[in-house]
Every structure is written in structure tokens, then in C-alpha cells.
Predict the 3D structure of the following.
Amino acid sequence: MLGGLIWWCIVGLIAGWLAGKVTKGGVGFGMLMDIVIGIVGAIIGGWIFGRLGGFPFSGMLGTIVVAFAGAVILLGLVRLVKKA
């Protein structure tokens, strides 16, 4: 359990940074905040894909894809709330 959470946090660091680069859209949070959102997004992405029955790919690639998807979704939602 704890090992899995630590793994998602490490992958979330990478996914948050990448998601921040992909979803800039004129509203920047900075690298540190994108990484924090990426960690939370990775955990959310892991939870969502786990509930849907699994990950789109297996191994390291699947983990990064899921974390990236969760981070992009969360960054998009945060940016929508920030604009409002």
C-alpha cells in the first residue's frame, strides 16, 4: 500500500511537469504547483482507471499514461476554476 502510494507520487512528479508543459493555455501555475497537481492527479488517475477495470497499458508505460491523464484532467479543472 505505502509502496504503491510512493510510486504514484514519483510518477506524479514527472506527469505533473509534463502536463503543465502540455496544458499551458495562457494560465501558468509554475513548475512547483504543476508538480503538486501532478502528484494529486496521478493518484486520482490511478483510482479512476482502477475503478474502470484496469490500465490502458501495462508496466511503466501504463503507469505514466494513467498519471499523465489524471494530471491533465486535474490541471484543466483547476484552470477552469481559477478563471471563474
Summary: Residues 59-83 form the longest helix (25 residues). The chain has one domain: 7-83.
